[in-house]
């Protein structure tokens, strides 16, 4: 651990996402947790990252994150520009009315440190509301999942929303993503 991949950056599974799911008390079986980690392991391997740099357990992933990812996360012009672009897309839909709510929710998800790094505005009134309300929303949704028919209805609604967002963001054109094979030069 502590080494870098051939691409110059550490390989760390999404320990933040798993941490948030645990914070929100989303029931995750050990099998699901291991499956989530495995997806990251296979993805890293398929990207050509040597296996010795790929965490084998969540404990190793958390340790690697604290050791090599957390210390290097910093402000970049690209991160700030991406934040502005994403907020701009949302503003196109609602003329910017929900921007304070989006800022508060985004800060809740990524934390104040990353929020500051990417240029999210602070929302002193909405941030505590979002922090208190979102775990309740997640608990409500998770409480409904065991009911008959709810999983398929929830999946359908979430998939429809995902498709709408993709359609809106692509402006109806096919999406082409270029995956870089090297870091940008400094």
Give a summary of the structure in a few sentences.
The chain has 186 residues and is mostly helical.
How would you describe this protein?
- With 186 residues, this protein is mainly α.
- It has seven helices and no strands.
- The protein has helices spanning 15-23, 30-46, 58-69, 77-94, 99-118, 126-144, 150-170.
- It starts with 14 loop residues before the first helix and ends in a 16-residue tail after the last helix.
**Distinct helical segment count:** 7
Mean pLDDT: 84
* Overall spatial form: globular
Quantity of strands, as a count:
0
**Whole-number radius of gyration?**
19 Å
Structural class: mainly alpha
The rounded distance between the terminal residues' Cα atoms is: 24 Å
List the helices and strands in order. HHHHHHH
Provide keyphrases for this structure.
single chain, 186 residues, mainly alpha, globular, disordered N terminus
Topology:
Blueprint: H1 15-23, H2 30-46, H3 58-69, H4 77-94, H5 99-118, H6 126-144, H7 150-170
